Amino acid sequence: MSSFLRSIISVSALKLVDYIVPIIIMPLVLTRFNLEGYGVYSYVLTISTFISFIYDACLNTVGVQQLNKLKGNEIAQQSFVISAIFFKLVFFFVCAIVFIIISETAGKSDYFCVVIFSFGFGMLNSWYYIAKDNFRFIIIVSLVVKILAVLFVLYYAFELHMFIFIQAIASALVGLISLIKIKNDNRLGKISFRHIKNYLKNIKHMYIYSGVNALIQPIINSAILASGNASLLGIYNVVMRFVAVSVTFSNSIITVLNKCNSEVFYSVGHKTNYVEVKYRSQLLKLLFYSIVVFICVAAISYVSIYMTKGEISRFFIFLIFSFSLAVIPSILNQYLTQLIHMIHSSKNIVKYEICSNVLSLISIFLFSSLFPYYYIVYAVVLSPIIITICCLWDLKCKNLL
C-alpha cells in the first residue's frame, strides 16, 4: 500500500472516530430529546468548535508544513511541537476565561460543557499525527473513550444537560491523553519563543481569513436560536452535521495532499514549476468527489429528518437541498486555501474571505425581515461559492491551473 493511500486511510480513521459517535447517537438524541434538543446540543458543539478554532490558531494546517520545513533536524522539530503546544495551552485558558465572562447564551452547565468540549477538540492535535504518519495510538484511545461515552449515554443520559456533559468529558479525555502523548514524544524539545514568533508570523493572514469564515456558523446558529424556531435550528444542524462530517472526512484527503505538495514544494525550492504537482488534476478529482458527497449528504439528511418528523414540507426539502449544496465549495476551499497559503499568497485569501462573509452577514441582517429563513440559505451557500471563485481566479492568474 502506498504511503499516500495509507495516510488517507489513517487520517480518515481518526476523523471517523471523532464523528462516528455524533452520527450513531443522532437517532437517540432526536428520539429522547426531540429535534429541538438536538438543535441545542449542536449549538453547544458549534460554539465549542469555534473556540477551539480560535486557540488552535491554524496549527492544524501550518503545523504539518512547519515540520516538513524542519525535516532532518529532530531537535528543532521537537522544540517547535513543544512551543506550539505551550502557546495553545496559554491561549486556551485565555479564551476560556473570556468566554465564561462575556457569554450570555445558556445556563452555567452549558458554559462549562462548551469549555470542556473546546479543550478536547483543540488538544487532539491531529496535525502532529499526520506529520509523523503515526495514528495507531490516538485512534485506539479515541475509539475506546467514545465507546464508553456511548454506553454512559445509553444508560445515564436521560436529561439533555447530562447528555451534553458526558460527551464533553469524553472529548476532553481524548484531548488530554493526546496532549500527554505528544509531550512524552518530544521530551528533548524546549520552549522556544523564536519558534512561536515565526509560527505566529506565518499564520497572520491565514488566521484572519479562517477566523472570518469560522465566525459565520456561530452567528447563523445564534440568529436561528434568537428567532425562536427550535425546529428550524434542529433541521439546520442535522443537515450541517452531515456536511461537517463530510468536509472533515474530505479534509483527510486534502491534508495528505497538502503534506505531499508541501514536501515537493519545500524540497525543490520556490522556483520550481508548480504545475508538476498536478494541481489541476487534483482539483478536478476533488470536484467530482465533492458532487458525489453532496448527493449523499442531501439523501442522508432527508431520511434522518423524515424519520423524526414524518412528512416534510417542500420548504424544508428546499432547505435540506440548499444546505447540503454548501459541501461542494467547502471541500474545494480547503484545498484551494491551503495551496494558496503554501505559495505565500495569503493576503489575497484574507480579502476573499472578508468580502464573501460580509455579503453573507449583510444577507442575514437585511433580508431576514423581508424573506424569513431564506437568509440562512444565502449565508450558508453564498459565502463558500464566492471564495471558491476568487481562489480559482487567483491560481489562474498565477498560471497554476
Automatic annotation (TrEMBL):
Family matches, as InterPro entries: Poly_Biosynth_Transport (IPR050833)
Signal peptide from the UniProt entry: none
Membrane topology (UniProt): Multi-pass membrane protein
UniProt keyword annotations, A-Z: Cell membrane, Membrane, Transmembrane, Transmembrane helix
Protein name per its UniProtKB record: Putative O-antigen transporter
Subcellular location: Cell membrane
Transmembrane residue ranges: 7-28, 40-59, 80-103, 109-130, 137-158, 164-182, 206-226, 238-257, 286-306, 312-337, 349-367, 373-395
Cellular component terms (Gene Ontology): plasma membrane
Chief location: membrane
